[in-house]
Amino acid sequence: MNNPPDLNQLKQFAKEVRRDIVNMTTEAGSGHPSSSLSAVEALTALYAGGIMRHDPKNPHWPERDRFILSKGHAAPVLYAVLAECGYFPKDWLHTLRKLDSPLEGHPNMCKLAGVEASTGSLGQGLSLGIGHALAGRLDKKDYHVYVMIGDGESDEGQIWEAAMTAGKYKLSNLVCIVDRNDFQQNASTAEIMPSLEPLADKWRAFDWDVREIEGNNLEQVLGALREVKGARDKPQCLIAHTVKGYGVHYLADNPANAHFHGIPLPKDQLAQALKDIDNMP
Ligand SMILES: Cc1ncc(C[n+]2csc(CCOP(=O)(O)OP(=O)(O)O)c2C)c(N)n1
Ligand SMILES: [Mg+2]
Q1: Residue 3 pLDDT level (bands cut at 50, 70, 90)
Q2: Which 3-state string (H, E, C) describes 7-34?
C-alpha cells in the first residue's frame, strides 16, 4: 500500500465516507446510518490510515490483514470505505439493498470482494476472527485480524465465549474494537443490560489488554491502533467511546430515540445532514 495520508486528508476521507453513508441509506430508504456513522473513524484509520495491510486490487491476498464487521447492520460504513479505497466502483453504492445488488443489507462475503465475513446475526464475528487469527499462527503468517463489535451486541453469550478463547490462546494478532456508542436497538445499553459495565474489567478478566479511547477522534484511534500492533502475548481490546450518528445532528442529538436505530434519514433532512458533515472540523 501507499504511504498513509496525513491527518487532514484522512479527515476528508472520513467526511466522504459519512456523505456516502447518508446518501446511500436515504436513497435506499432503509438501513442503519446511525450505527454506521459511529464507526467511521475506526474504519477510516484501519483501511486508509496505514494500519491495515491490504490491496483493493487483490482482495484475497493471503498476507492481508483481515477486518470483520461483526455488527453487520453497519454495512454502509464498510461499503463506503471499500468503495473509497477502490475495491469496487463508487456508483455501486447507489445499489444498496436493491434486488441482485452485491451490497446487501448485511455484508455477504460471497457477493462482494473485500467483505471478509458474512455477518448480521450478532455475536458471531469475534469467533470468526479467532479462526483467522489461529490460522495465521498455524500458517506462520504475520497478519492481524481486526473485529468490530457493538456494545449491544456484547449482550450475546458467544462474544464472551470468544473472549475467553482468545485469552486462552494469547492471540496477540487479534484486535477487538468495541463500538461503545451506549445505545442498542430499542434503548440505551444502560437500560437494556446495565451489567455490561464494568466493561473494561470484563475483557481484562479474560486476559485481554484493554484501552479506552474516544472513538470519533481520529488521532486517538490511529494512535491506539498503532500501539496494539506491537502486542506480543495478549489479544487487544479497544473500547471506542463513540456517538451513534456522529456527524449528523438529526441523528446524533437524538440517540435515545429508538426511532433512529435502523431508520434512514427522512429525505427532507438529507441536505442539512450533508451540511453538518461539511462543517465537521
Ligand atoms: C442475533 C441477533 N439478534 C438481534 C438482531 C437485531 N439487531 C440488529 S442491530 C441490533 C442492535 C445492536 O446494537 P449495537 O450492537 O449496540 O449496535 P449499534 O447499532 O449501536 O452500533 C439488534 C438487536 C440481530 N441482528 N442479530
Ligand atoms: Mg451500540
Answers
A1: low
A2: HHHHHHHHHHHHHHHHHHHHHHCCCCHH
